[in-house]
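During the reporting period the student researcher (J.K.) took over the structure-prediction task from the postdoctoral fellow and processed the backlog of single-chain submissions. One of the processed entries is reproduced below for the supervisory committee.
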Amino acid sequence: MPSNFHAPSVPQTKAIVSIENVVASASINQRVDLNLITKNFVDVEYHPDQFPGLVFRLKSPKTATLIFSSGKMVCTGAKSEEQSRKAVQEVVRRLKKGGIPIKNEAEIVIQNIVGTANLGGKIDLEEAARQLPKSMYEPEQFPGLIHRMPDPKTVILLFSSGKLVCTGAKREGEVFRAVNNLHVMLEQKELMVY
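J.K. obtained the following structure tokens:
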């Protein structure tokens, strides 16, 4: 590629994107005695007659981690990938310190990141549904347009106010890219009213 070649720049959105929730799954690859955790930690929630998992809450980062007897965990409530990983590691650290025999470090996988944004303008959802591929708008069922973005693979719930919710991302950067891609598409198709 010649050195004077410049790739066409993708316009950047001015939308402020906020990460609302990161869901991570984890496994310590061993069985865990949930009753022992309940004995050793007074502030956990465990009602095996209603749900097979135990809830272990942290104040910082403010998260809730479900722990199952299989050693699998699900952490919700984090506001970043890093916070999510730190939360799981902190839960494992506290369990070990509290006398729960844990041999392995947690293997952590980010499952879903939910973000919100405000595009700063109004959108005609009827027209957007006609012009945007992979979009569905049924106002009798749901007040927002549902847009399935193939790359990055996300689902965006878009409202006429210009506010949106992006879900399904596995990395924070995917949320920002999805919002930017949608905003640029709306701009190019002149579907934004400021």
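The committee noted the following: DSSP finds four helices and twelve strands in the chain.
J.K. will present the remaining backlog at the next meeting.
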